[in-house]
Amino acid sequence: MRQRLLTVIALAGVLVAACGQSTSTPSPSSSKQGGTLTVAIGVAPDTLDPMRQTTTTIQNIVQMAVETLVQVNKQGQLEPLLATSWSHSSDGTTWTFTLRKGVKFSDGEPFNAQAVVTSIDRALDPTNVCPLCGQMPKFVQSVTATDSDHVQFTLNQPVATNFFLGNLSGVQFGILAPNTIQKGTPAYKDDEHPVGTGPYILQEYVSGDHVTMVRNPNYWGKKPAYKEQIIKIVPTAATREALLRADQAQVILDPPTADLPSLESDPNLKVLLAPDDRTIFISLDTVSTSQPLLQKVEVRQALNYAVNKAAIVKGTLYGAAVPMTAPMAPSLFGYCKMPDQYNYDPAKAKQLLQAAGAEGMTLKLISPTGRYIQDFQAAENVASYLRQVGINVEGPTTMDWPTYISTINVPPDKATTDAGLLGWAPGFLDASQQMVIFDGPLQPPKGLNTAYYNNPTVNNLISEAATQLNTTKRAAEYCQAEKIIWNDAPWIFLWVQKFPIAYSAKVTGVSYVPNESFNTIYAAPA
Amino acid sequence: MSIPESDSIELATGQLRPDLLALQEEETGPRREPVWRELLRHRSALAGLIVLAIYFLAAVLGPIVFHDYNPSYQNLNNTLAPPSLQHLLGTDNYGRDELMDLIHGARFTLGLGVLAVAVGIGVGLPLGALSGYFGSWVDLLIQRLTDILLAFPSFVLALALVAALGPGLKNVVIAVGVGSIPLFIRLVRAEALRIRELPYVEAARALGVRSGRVLLRHLIPNALAPVIVLATLQMGLAILTAAGLGFFGLGVQPPTPEWGSLLGQGENYIFRDANLITFPGLCIFFAVLAFNLVGDGLRDVLDPRLRQ
Amino acid sequence: MLTYVVRRLLIAIPTLWGVVTGAFIISRLLPGDPARIMAGLNATQQQVDRLRHQLGLDKPLWVQYQDYMGQLLHGNLGFSPHFSAPVAAQIAQRLPYTAELAVLATAIAVVVGVTIGVLAALRRNTLLDLILSAFAVFGVSMPVYWLGLMLILIFAIDLRALPAAGADSPQSVILPAVTLALFSIGLIARMTRASMLEVLGQDYVRTARAKGAPHRRVVLKHALRNAVLPILTAIGLQFGGLLGGAVLTESVFGWPGVGQLLVNSIFYRDYPMVQGLVLLFGVTYVVINLLVDLMYAYVDPRIRFD
Hints:
- Chain A is an alpha+beta fold and 526 residues long.
- In chain A, 29% of the residues lie in helices and 24% in strands.
- The longest helix of chain A is centred in the N-terminal third of the chain and has 18 residues, at 2-19.
- By secondary structure, chain C is an all-alpha fold.
- Chains A and B meet through α1, α7, α10, α12 and β15 of A and loops of B.
């Protein structure tokens, strides 16, 4: 405050001269029952089309208006939404969903089986762009309405329950009012104004500024408290915090990380460090020819022992993460905690390096900036720890995100770096969505296995589990694969990020789903 | 205010600062005293010179006196520490001493400003001289090129270039320097146009003195005064532009303690530890201020019309 | 006069062509795959490839360039893959915000800058001159976003007087406009001071004074009027800087203008949007300079365009 005072004096004159009189306080969006809730986010939506979007923040906004057949709850479990129940044939290739009755779209159209068919067909149409549809177009043969409240999915092959339902919980498979997305209309390709059955109705989107959601008076379920929610786009984290502190926004996503402690200690504010599924890691080039030492398991294990993850989480991430305890986040189905952890042990690291003849080895490290919580600074910390065990780290070097992706996501023979920091958030909370990144055949350019990790046992377990209908067996298969991966250490396993949300103490009911999602639908004045 | 008549688009002088142009109308009579002495008597320029002197001292002596500073040093147990006797300005987000960061940052920031302007002059001066001196198609080509560069918003150009080249000190220098090229071209060209018509230059040309010689002997020295003034002002701008790139994470990268880079990181700590944004901000502010004061002072001293 | 304008506009065509081509080349020099960025990391390579094909990014560069220039000649700025919307439509949504910001900032800068410049020139070498000149230099010496964040801290949080960000209330524009104006104030004030000093030293001003014309009249009618040319130049000159500054200011204040759009388009590798916006900035630059030159003729009848 004292330094600020100096600036006040320096600048006050400017302001007086420049704007004449200071204007009255804009009435902060009041948090009365039925009022407006303002939520500040950092990402500007590229599209609001549920089928075309690619980011969780946008999904969360769209999900206020568009509902799916099934949804994931706060505990990460699948639960009914527009479908009240489901069953599959014994061979696992036919799925039947019973739909909720008495539901209407916000434009008045009835919700029924035909609407489901129209929406799913649209997302699976190969001529459409659906980046998050994943393997579904490959697996789903047809979707048919057996009667007005039953829909049947016919699959080309059996698919694990969690996998199939997990996919359907994504808003890319959200159910839209059929009249708004008729085949042949522009909205079939690109629906910028999705109309769904949700508790809110998308009212307007002012490009780059805000999205306005108004309460759906005819919602079939529990009605939200706020009449209106304004989702404001503010790319600078410090500015978002300013909005919150000035009470011009009541909820903000991703406040400046270093401010988490002070936000937590402010009696007027609350901080929610929501569990997340995003793992942050340093992908090691396990087939490197420029640094062949990385091909050795002991060397990669040594790197894991060398880094004090807990200290970085505390000192640089201010608690907005938890060190990884397995190659995936605990919120995923199939997670199992590894019996042997890579605890910080520089002596052991040195010893392993020595045994592998890797003392003083050179390691080229790259990291993005501003993509994940404190990413570049964390990479610097990692580099510092690696140097302490005698590794000659070159870097970290950084670049803008598209450049970064095209640098790290390349086939092994085109690799120009030895190690790179990355984050991975599974599409839904199932081990299969984490395993794609360890799957041998899915090396770039086919997939994002940037470590070029290729273990035949793991590959087999992954493909077995994908079609395994027995849930217990499936979990065991993933657990086994995880143990092998953990031991092989294709990454420096860092941490599972948390999703920081700060909000005014005048608001309650700010919630989340452990897949980097915020949920303010049932937020209410305290 | 004379309007160059050779090419009416020149009216888009938009770019040619009239206050700089004025310098070209300098009288040829002998000066009363050396420029530097006049400059020292110019109060605000003196203030600027003193600030710059301190900064350059920090840049030169800093690494010698505080040679045990290691930019890669990290201490995660002592980040964002408040000012104390041990750390006069506290510690930064890596646990480094903030004051040491700033002292060692001086040479990077000043170097960045000087080198970026060197890029501008290095390319702009020869092109401007050629353009003005030879005229015809050379002029036309270079002028169109200048127009294009000027029509590109310079900050966006810098941002795009650094996104293409990758961040880092060298690339930031290039990206920032490119933006000042057209300004120097314009300035030197106008000077060349004028010199070309001077009787003794015409005479020299008539006598068959090679163009290169004429350019070197007469044009360059004459153009020097306005170029130096523009250079001082552009150095400040270059430092600011680099700081702006730091805001998008594309400036000079840590651990290099360049001030713009420190400022860019400090943004993340603005509420937690305002020192991290205030001190680098002030350092940059005073650097740019000093360059501007010296530039203005130089112009006052060199511009005969402003002399009382 | 008309022929002059037409000629100037004709000369601008190759410039703008160069600007667009430059933007095309630079955006293609940026490493990174727009299709991958658009589809996100979770998309399969197959989906990315299909997207790339739909965007026409699998065509040879030369063909892409020809296609783009062909579109431009038909007045079509192309289609933004990131927004999956026409570039022109997106720009049309955002441009009014930047226009509002730029015009207000310029207005503030001109009023404050010229006042400071005139006062400083009239009180040359006094304490007032020093203070005013120092203030003018302050403006050009502060990193824009540092200033912006400081203003937010003071006026939105400490004083709770103004909105911190966004564009939803009429007062929202004040902080970004002031931030943006400060840079231009410095430039305009210094230019005004310099040209006023020059004019005040001219014979006709001295004569007017000697004839006993009231001081204010001398200053306003004779001196300021004649000093206006360089000031106009300064205004034209600062406009380019203003647009550059808008890029940072808009990002700090979450102001939904074209500056922020341009930055994002670079980071998303939205080539058509980058090209369209750079072209827009180029056109603005050309038009502003033309206007400035035409105002020269208006202000100073000695200048004729023929």
